[in-house]
Automatic annotation (TrEMBL):
UniProt-recorded name of the protein: SDR family NAD(P)-dependent oxidoreductase
Keywords recorded for this protein, A-Z: Oxidoreductase
SUPFAM superfamilies according to UniProt: NAD(P)-binding Rossmann-fold domains (SSF51735)
Pfam families in the record: adh_short (PF00106)
Top-level division of the source organism's lineage: Bacteria
Amino acid sequence: MRTIVITGGTDGMGAALARHFLSAGDRVVVIGRSRAKFDALLTTVTGDDRSAKQRAEFIAADLSSVADSRRVVEHLRAHHERIDALVLAASFIRQRRHTTAEGHEASWALFFLSKYLFVTGLAPLLRAAERPVIVNTAVPGARAGAIDFDDLEMREGFTFTRSNAQQRRANELLGLLATGENPGLAYVTWGPARLVRSSFAGDVGKGMKIAAAVLGRLLGQRPDAAVGPIIDIVGAPAPGRAAYRGAKKLTLTVGDHDDRDAARLAAAVGDE
């Protein structure tokens, strides 16, 4: 039986993946903020409902909190011998800069620091799996120079576009660190082929909310349809780094100093 860990597993694509893997007979650990949503998710699982409930675990956490991310990693290491697949899908969109109680820029904390802590902290459990895979829903393709190493938390000149590009590029470099430590690991940065209908959790302006709602209804794909390529990747992982939009494999972005940049990034956040 595989062990699948999904952050952001109570909504949208994360919930669709949790339903699929539970129905397929896997052990699934869902990390999210709402126990009520997790309980509701379990009622939609097909197959042996009693068995699914026994194979499902919920860990409540706000992954924009470094302390919460560390707590979840420690819990997983204490209660599981291996992780076959780690899906990093937690999301909360912010158009404006927001500082957490710990003093971090919230989007950077959620979309990179938490992922860094999961990938590095759970490395021993992933190494224990026969065919380990990480699927990071950081849409690939950000330019190589998107990271401002002198101001990672964008205390100056914050924009949604800059913040988004920096997080995405940092997660691509995280793949270099992860596969360097574990050559047998498959590390995939992935984004949907097109808009996905979801509850669109976030702190955004009215214009973005309306656009997301309207376009989602008109053009969006259902979460259970959108995650098909992720299910395929988890089912047949290929060691090394890769990038996908939907089922289409993309060329990885290559910079002149990727290894140096990855090491610089690790040094900058390693004490978190």
